[in-house]
Design a protein that fits this description.
The chain is α+β, with helices and mostly antiparallel strands. The chain is built from 6 helices and 10 strands. Strands 1, 2, 3, 4, 5, 6, 7, 8, 9 and 10 form a 10-stranded mixed β-sheet that branches.
Length: 165
Amino acid sequence: MKLSILSKILTFALIALTSIANPAWSQDRAASIKFEGSVSDGIGSRVPVDDIEAIGLVTETVYDPFDKVETEYAGVWLDSLAEHFGGQGVSLITTSAIDGYTVEWDFDYLSEYRVLIATRSGGERLTLETKGPLRVIFADYDENQTHFKETLPKWVWMITTIRFD
C-alpha cells in the first residue's frame, strides 16, 4: 500500500517537474515516441503510438508488482517492435524514460521473457499520469519466482525514447 502511494506521488511530482522544466512537453508529444539509432527505412524520428499499436496489439492480464493488482494491459511485444521499426541487424534495444532512466534489451533476454510494450491499461490509452505513453510489462510475471523478482528494475514506465543498435 505504501509503495503504491509513494509511486503515485513520485509520478505526479515527475510530471509536474517535467512540465516546469520543459513547457514544450504536451500530450501531443506524449502520443508519439522518439526513435533513435538504426531504424527501418521510411520510419521517422517520431512515431505515433497509433502506428506502434498497428503492428499487432495484444492484450494480457498481468499481476502488476508495483500496484499489487492484476491489470489488463494492451500493447506490442518488444521483439516485434524491434523487428518492425528497427533497422537490419539490430541486436540491442534501449528504452528510455522521461527522467532519463534507461534499460538495455538484447534478443537473448527477449527469448527468455515475454516483454510487452504497453500502450493501454484497462482499455484506456496510457498517458503521463498513468505511467505512459509506453511502459514495460513482463507478461508472465510471477511474484513467487525469484527470477521474475530480478526483472523489477526493468519495468520501465513513461518511455519516451527507444533506440535500436
